[in-house]
Amino acid sequence: MPALSADVSSQNESSPGEQTALRAEESAADPSAAPVEKVAKPAKAAPRRARNPEKEFRIAGQPGFVLHSYPYKETSLIVDVFTRDHGRIALVAKGAKRPHSQLRGVLQTFQPLSVGWSGKAEVRTLTAAEWVGGLLPLEKSALLCGFYLNELLVKLLARDDPHPALFDHYISALNQLAHDEPAAIVLRKFERALLQETGVASDWRVCAASGKAIALEQIYVLDPERGPRPARPSDVWPRVSGKTLLDMENEDYSDAQTQTQSKFLMRFLLAHHLNGAPLNTRQILIDLLQL
């Protein structure tokens, strides 16, 4: 950095200009002194253009899904995208609101995409988005269930936190909903996978209090921070059988009691980890489908 080194050196020595001025003063005081020569100022070096690391950082061909989008300025969108290898990221889609933009028909929810972007800031710049197909569209109640999954991801998944296994669970859930599989079971499986992948749910096959294996006939409550323990008379948390916990770990929801108990258990756990923030789509689902 030449400018910095020049500034540092000027604190200890007189500059050529100052030396010339001093000699000029001495010459004026002494008429017999030799004339002072003018010292040419050194030419300034052309400033270097700083590199922008954000523009140099590029990702291409990343599998992803649009979770949510909202307007940005007059013609653009901010798009919340769930990607396989980079987690949830925010991208600005420049010009996406223009009538003839190719992005208008591509940036749709529940559509498998191949996306690219540049930048490393909190909001990057979308550089490419291509529909890759492979999933049936969601309709009617399945569509509402899909929006519920998206809301869970937006509210519980931190940005830039990759979860490839959860991404695969998401694709599986969308595919099951599109093929009219029981919505309640699909949602329970995804809710459990989300809590596991984000590290807020322990192994439900082991009692947190004793370290022993969960007993089928024992009644438990699930401490949101520690895991299952035997229920006490004073507990206000949802009570579940050991069988329900083991069924959920094995993704077996064939038992009617497991379906009922898992519904109230997951509702309780999600409310805890959301710090009481409401899930708008969940309330609609409760009203319409009793899920």
Strand content: 15-25%
Counted by DSSP, the helix tally is 9
Q: Roughly how many Å apart are the termini?
A: 64 Å
Radius of gyration: 32 Å
DSSP strand tally: 8
How do the strands line up in the largest sheet?
Answer: 1-2-3-5-4
Architecture of the largest domain, CATH level 2? Up-down Bundle
Helix content percent band: 25-40%
**Integer tally of domains:** 2
Which consecutive residue ranges, at least 5 long each, have pLDDT under 50?
1-33, 45-51
**Topology as a string of helices (H) and strands (E):** HHHEEEEEHHHEEEHHH
Label the overall shape.
elongated
**What is the C-level CATH assignment of the largest domain?**
Mainly Alpha
Query: Structural class per helix/strand content?
Result: alpha+beta
The major β-sheet equals: 5 strands, mixed, barrel
Q: What is the name of the CATH superfamily of the largest domain?
A: Recombination protein O, C-terminal domain
What's the rounded overall pLDDT mean? Answer: 85
The CATH topology label of the largest domain is de novo design (two linked rop proteins)
